[in-house]
Design goal:
Radius of gyration: 22 Å
CATH class of the largest domain: Mainly Alpha
Strand content: 5-15%
Structural class: mainly alpha
Number of strands: 6
Order of helices and strands: HHHHHEHEEHHEHHEEHHHHH
């Protein structure tokens, strides 16, 4: 998802990872209800532009090259084998469910809304109101080909490699906060797509932009979804390629272990002390992501206090200071590593 500028100064109470994720889900649910309520097989030459305009194709090819519904159907079907390997886990869960239900449709509320939106934009699914609820339907034109492709050993091999790349990039974002889109595409191609049926630059870029938040620039940057204002800080975002070149494997392992241990400690001291609308794990993660962005201790304490049932204990405050010290510092070299 593309990120845009946030009003400044940043209010950390409303820009924690949890808050950003919640707003993103609410916005996505609202968008889903605005999409066309018909699918690829129902498309006609008269309304083909309606589907085109909400699709990934329109973003990737701003000037439409098709003139008929059959052309659009042909594009979607031609991409199925490659694109199936490049779905998120949440998207694949939706597809498997809809196939197992003989395409009777599923309550949109059952699924991750962003996954549903991505499938709608692929033109594989549509969302329509049925019996007072939003229902997700898998288009009949793609259902049988997808069911056959899911049984292919080649699909699973490519998918396993793609998922390994996803987790590696996620770990890199946790450490450095940002990655160049070009770097991510290079890793994806080298480690997962090279020489396979899924070797498509257009679909690879689609995978990157549907899997991670990003900021438009030269080059585009993938950013951690908890970054409060990536556009406002774009000139200070970290060059992770330079970082990885500077660090040894031991450095990376030590950084990861230290941050993980500090997060576990923070989570442990919060057990039984947080308000019902959050969890110890979620609050500890919010605080660590804030610390990675250099949030001042005062802001960290404010967010902590706002989510506790009582005043913070001295042990909580000591652990919070330790969390801030041991968390990676996005935009500069983490603690203990020399530039």
């Amino acid at each position: 998802m593309q990120r845009h500028s946030e009003p400044r100064p940043i209010d950390w109470r409303t820009h924690t990872l949890s808050q950003l994720q919640q707003r993103g889900l609410e916005e996505c649910r609202n968008r889903l209800l605005s999409y066309p309520d018909f699918g690829l097989h129902e498309c006609t030459d008269q309304n083909v532009d309606t589907l085109w305009n909400i699709s990934w194709y329109a973003e990737e090819q701003p000037v439409p090259k098709l003139r008929s519904a059959n052309e659009l159907r042909g594009m979607v079907l031609a991409n199925l084998p490659a694109e199936l390997s490049l779905l998120s886990e949440e998207e694949l869960e939706v597809i498997r469910y809809l196939l197992s239900g003989e395409n009777e449709g599923g309550n949109a509320g059952m699924f991750h809304p962003i996954a549903v939106e991505h499938l709608v934009r692929r033109l594989w699914c549509s969302v329509r109101m049925e019996g007072g609820r939003a229902a997700v339907r898998l288009d009949m034109l793609v259902a049988i080909p997808l069911a056959m492709l899911l049984l292919s050993p080649a699909f699973q091999e490519i998918r396993n490699n793609v998922q390994s790349v996803y987790h590696a990039l996620r770990n890199e974002l946790d450490l450095f906060g940002s990655i160049s889109e070009d770097e991510a595409l290079s890793v994806l191609w080298t480690e997962a797509l090279k020489g396979t049926p899924a070797d498509s630059g257009v679909l690879a870029r689609r995978w990157v932009r549907s899997s991670f938040d990003y900021v438009a620039g030269k080059p585009n940057l993938l950013v951690h979804e908890g970054m409060a204002d990536p556009c406002g800080n774009i000139s200070h975002l970290f060059d992770s390629e330079r970082a990885l070149a500077a660090y040894t494997d031991e450095d990376i392992a030590r950084m990861t272990e230290s941050a993980g241990d500090a997060l576990e400690m923070m989570t442990a001291v919060l057990l039984g002390a947080v308000r019902g609308e959050t969890t110890p794990e979620a609050l500890a993660t919010d605080l660590q992501v804030m610390a990675c962005q250099g949030a001042p201790e005062e802001a960290l304490r404010e967010v902590l206090c706002a989510n506790l049932l009582t005043s913070p204990t001295p042990n909580m405050l000591d652990t919070l200071r330790h969390l801030k010290t041991m968390s990676p510092c996005w935009g500069r070299f983490p603690v203990g590593i020399k530039e």
